[in-house]
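Researcher: Quick test of sequence recovery. Tokens follow.
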């Protein structure tokens, strides 16, 4: 039986509330506000956050009132929504300044003015729909509004589709609708956005090695997958619309990744937060994370800046395989290199890492090459 050893050197952990560094960027985490009025005192209170890009931040929580309206400095401006929702889950502000809230177990999506006046409701309250339904959802998770006003609802906790409506909430078509993890299938959607090419970008595999899938909203056809992302539960999903850069928070894995051109270009781990929903303030570039692990709720403000060259010194760790066994058995080597990568990221490495693989002479050459390719230089 073969044994594998992972040795990690020159790493350092960080705590939220301070500066954290990655190979490319520096992350400053601060509390948006210290506490929220009339909070439950329990975890999973603050479930979502939104920004209008003009100075207003919206916090959605499971205390009354559920919608809290702040300025960027953390001053409470307004609150509303008491008694409106069964299970408020997600909040978004569209490009026209309207507020969208998903009532997950209420099976509804609502459009409001910024001061809480209801304008549109989509769905059938309390009624579950399947993947073919035109009028009902089954625990929808996110909303995106396109430039022409079309509404895209991620109906993905129990269903496996994006549902498109016109600006008045009239059904247009279903995108996806087939359960699975192969190309063109969906399973556990938790976010939807649109890039500068007009493609729908969908965060899928909510609880099992999430991926991002790309779709043509005009035809409803699948285009491509991005992944693996090496996350445990990809939940928060937001983007820089000017650069087509996407940010994904990992609720259970306590990390935040940056994705561009279909590839993960940066990763910061060891976050002492469970980022359930995320938003990028287009006016400042600041990210906000809704932490569902904090008792009484918490919104983290994340300022991201480029690293200086001096901070990007390399670190190393080593993967060693030794012992006797069948050299054609590939699982051990692949598992060892992945374990080292995961550990390095989990503690929030401050430096670029390089990995080196040593193995017994005579092991399958293709196996060793594959393992070395997987290790590479990261994150």
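Model:
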């Amino acid at each position: 039986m073969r044994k594998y050893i992972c040795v990690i050197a020159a790493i350092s952990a960080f705590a939220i509330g301070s500066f954290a560094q990655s190979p490319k960027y520096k992350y400053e985490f601060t509390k948006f506000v210290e506490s929220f009025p009339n909070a439950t005192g329990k975890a999973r209170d603050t479930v979502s956050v939104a920004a209008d890009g003009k100075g207003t931040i919206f916090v959605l929580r499971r205390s009354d009132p559920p919608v809290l309206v702040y300025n960027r400095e953390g001053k409470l401006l307004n609150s509303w929504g008491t008694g409106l929702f069964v299970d408020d889950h997600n909040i978004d502000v569209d490009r026209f300044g309207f507020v969208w809230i998903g009532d997950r177990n209420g099976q509804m999506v609502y459009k409001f003015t910024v001061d809480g006046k209801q304008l549109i409701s989509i769905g059938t309250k309390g009624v579950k729909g399947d993947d073919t339904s035109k009028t009902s959802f089954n625990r929808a998770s996110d909303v995106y509004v396109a430039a022409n006003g079309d509404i895209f609802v991620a109906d993905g906790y129990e269903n496996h589709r994006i549902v498109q409506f016109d600006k008045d909430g009239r059904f247009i078509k279903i995108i996806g609708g087939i359960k699975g993890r192969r190309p063109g299938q969906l399973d556990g959607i938790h976010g939807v956005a649109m890039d500068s090419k007009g493609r729908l970008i969908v965060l899928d595999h909510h609880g099992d090695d999430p991926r991002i899938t790309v779709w043509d909203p005009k035809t409803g056809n699948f285009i491509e997958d991005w992944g693996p992302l090496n996350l445990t539960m990809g939940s928060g999903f937001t983007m820089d619309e000017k650069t087509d850069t996407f940010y994904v928070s990992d609720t259970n894995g306590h990390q935040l990744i940056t994705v561009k051109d279909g590839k993960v270009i940066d990763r910061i781990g060891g976050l002492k937060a469970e980022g359930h929903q995320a938003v990028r303030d287009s006016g400042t570039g600041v990210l906000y994370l809704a932490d569902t692990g904090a008792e009484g709720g918490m919104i983290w403000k994340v300022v991201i800046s480029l690293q200086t060259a001096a901070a990007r010194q390399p670190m190393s760790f080593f993967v060693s395989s030794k012992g006797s066994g069948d050299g054609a058995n590939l699982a051990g080597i692949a598992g060892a290199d992945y374990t080292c990568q995961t550990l390095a990221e989990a503690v929030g490495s401050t430096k670029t890492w390089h990995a080196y693989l040593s193995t017994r002479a005579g092991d399958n050459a293709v196996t060793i090459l594959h393992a070395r390719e997987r290790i590479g230089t990261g994150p």
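The longest strand covers residues 298-306.
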